[in-house]
Amino acid sequence: MxxxxxxxxxxxxxxxxxxxxxxxxxxxxxxxxxVAGTMPxxxxxxxxxxxxxxxxxxxxxxxxxxxxxxxxxxESVIRTRMYLSHARDADDVGRAHKELFGDVRPAxxxxxxxxxxxxxxxxxxxxxxxxxxxx
Length: 135
Description:
With 135 residues, the chain is α+β, with helices and mostly antiparallel strands. The chain has helices at residues 17-21, 52-67, 90-101, and strands spanning 7-10, 26-29, 32-38, 41-42, 45-46, 77-84, 107-112, 123-130.
C-alpha cells in the first residue's frame, strides 16, 4: 500500500472484514480523520443484541478508539453518521449520541437502512474528526 506523508491508514483487530475486504479502520488525511463504518463488536463478536442504545454506545466507543492513534478523541469529532435498521430505534440511538457528543455538537445524520451484514446488528456508525491546523 502506498502512503504519502499527508495520509496515514490505521488497521485494527476490531473487525475481521478489514482484512477480507481490504479497508482501513481509520484514515487520516491532512487535517481530517475518517473512521469507517463501525458496528457494536467486541473481539469480533456482536454485543448488545436487541438493544439499540447499547449497540450505539459500543459502536461509537469503537469509532472513538480508532481516533486515538491520531492523538484525538470525541472532542475532535465534527460529523457523525448513524445507520439504523429500524426507525423505532431513533430515540435510543439519539440518546446515546447525545451522551457521547452533547457537548461537542457535531453535524449528524441518521438514516434507516434495510439491514446489515450481520442481522443482529441494529446500529452502525461513522465519524469524521478534525485534527486542527498546526500551530
